[in-house]
């Protein structure tokens, strides 16, 4: 029986992670989107493609348009190669406008399965022009892509709000982190014993969070980030420390796991609402570690935190509200929230569940 040939576009090469695991090292990134399981599936033959960052055209477009420049080239490459594959598995969280148009007009020769990290809900966009562009892209994506599955139920629900999405796209894929990986332990020395943990840089409001901790000298915060991203916040208060992940190479993933595991709670401060659930990777890793989650109160969050009773939310740009939710939560509350978080990861949002769903969807679409 011939294997199903799958083309998986990615922002970057998976080689570093794959080689590290082959050498017996531990590493995990949610943005491989199930590749490890897909590559082991007997009925699938999967090929990953990514932009060649050393090419001159890639450097020029990246300089002009940043990530969207590389995204444009990646989609062109996908369209060009599509005739050699049975299905395109588009899981990267980049706008798929080009391949959607190409599929709609017959230039992309095989069906496309897309994992949507976008709600495409225009209410989150204030600019009239950007709202119009979003609506236009949504129109072509929902019609051009053969099958869309959403990263979480909340993302799907927001996408369906005041929008007639074709029923073939009404699916929650249950994207999450690897439960086995985040159950292992390997400790390293940290500056504080009882601390809160924050990670990530995209659309983060660390200014408000640091101001909150400045007013809580008895509480401790560790932020995993490049120090350059906090250059406007220095000098930091004594109770706030930076974990510079850029120094650790492949070992950074084990250290991050340990920072999650030993924290009191995981904090996700968001700068502004958009149609992407910012901090989703951090959130699903916190779920897998069984940690309470405190985040900015936004409709576009990956999961409804307070409704699920896994944490608390603070009003946007409100340091006093961050102080309130942290000070009003006891150690017992944190423990209960963490247990509920782990249960949600085990039953609804984890990497193995997600990968098995994707394998099933690929077989269905072909």
* Rg, alpha carbons: 21 Å
Instruction: Report the sheet with the most strands, covering strand number, pairing sense and barrel closure.
Output: 6 strands, parallel
Helix count, per DSSP? Answer: 13
| Low-pLDDT ranges | none
Mean pLDDT: 94
Strand order of the largest sheet: 8-7-6-9-10-11
Short description:
With 366 residues, this protein is α/β, with parallel strands linked by helices.
Q: Layout of SSEs?
A:
Elements: E1 4-9, H1 15-22, H2 35-40, E2 44-49, H3 56-65, H4 67-81, E3 87-90, H5 97-104, E4 112-116, H6 128-144, E5 147-150, H7 153-160, E6 196-199, H8 206-214, E7 221-224, E8 240-243, H9 252-262, E9 265-268, H10 280-289, E10 292-296, E11 311-314, H11 319-327, H12 331-347, H13 351-365
Parallel strand pairs: 1-2, 1-3, 3-4, 4-5, 6-7, 6-9, 7-8, 9-10, 10-11
Question: Mind explaining what this structure looks like?
Answer:
- By secondary structure, the chain is an alpha/beta fold.
- Helices cover 39% and strands 14% of the residues.
- The chain contains 13 helices and 11 strands.
- Strands 8-7-6-9-10-11 form a 6-stranded parallel beta sheet, sandwiched between helices. Strands 2-1-3-4-5 form a 5-stranded parallel beta sheet, sandwiched between helices.
- Helix 6 links the parallel strand 4 and strand 5.
- The longest helix is centred in the middle third of the chain and has 17 residues, at 128-144.
- The protein is globular and about 60 Å long.
- The mean pLDDT is 94.
């Amino acid at each position: 029986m011939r294997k199903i040939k799958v083309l998986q576009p990615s922002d970057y090469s998976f080689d570093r992670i794959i080689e590290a695991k082959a050498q017996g090292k531990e590493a995990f990134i949610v943005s491989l989107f199930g590749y490890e399981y897909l590559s082991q599936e007997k009925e699938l033959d999967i090929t990953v493609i990514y932009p060649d960052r050393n090419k001159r055209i890639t450097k020029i477009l990246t300089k002009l348009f940043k990530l969207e420049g590389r995204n444009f080239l990646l989609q062109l490459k996908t369209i060009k190669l599509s005739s050699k594959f049975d299905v395109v598995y588009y899981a990267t969280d980049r706008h798929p406008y080009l391949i959607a148009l190409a599929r709609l007009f017959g230039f992309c020769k095989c069906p496309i399965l897309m994992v949507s990290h976008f709600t495409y809900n225009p209410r989150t966009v204030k600019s009239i022009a950007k709202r119009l562009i979003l609506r236009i892209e949504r129109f072509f994506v929902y019609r051009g892509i053969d099958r869309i599955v959403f990263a979480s139920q909340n993302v799907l629900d927001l996408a369906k709000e005041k929008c007639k999405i074709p029923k073939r796209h009404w699916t929650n894929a249950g994207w999450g982190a690897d439960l086995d990986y985040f159950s292992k332990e390997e400790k390293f020395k940290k500056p504080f014993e009882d601390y809160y943990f924050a990670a990530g840089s995209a659309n983060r409001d660390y200014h408000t969070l640091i101001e909150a901790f400045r007013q809580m000298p008895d509480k401790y915060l560790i932020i995993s980030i490049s120090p350059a991203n906090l250059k406007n916040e220095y000098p930091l208060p004594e109770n706030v420390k930076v974990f510079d992940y850029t120094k650790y190479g492949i070992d950074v993933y084990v250290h991050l796991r340990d920072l999650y595991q030993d924290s009191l709670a995981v904090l996700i401060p968001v700068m502004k609402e958009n149609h992407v659930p910012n901090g989703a990777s951090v959130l699903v890793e916190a779920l897998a570690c069984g940690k309470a989650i405190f985040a900015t109160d936004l409709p576009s969050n990956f999961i409804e935190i307070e409704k699920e009773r896994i944490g608390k939310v603070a009003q946007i740009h409100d340091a006093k509200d961050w102080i309130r939710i942290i000070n009003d939560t006891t150690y017992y509350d944190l423990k209960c929230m963490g247990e509920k978080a782990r249960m949600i990861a085990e039953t609804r949002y984890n990497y193995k569940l997600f990968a098995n769903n994707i394998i099933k969807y690929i077989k269905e679409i072909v």
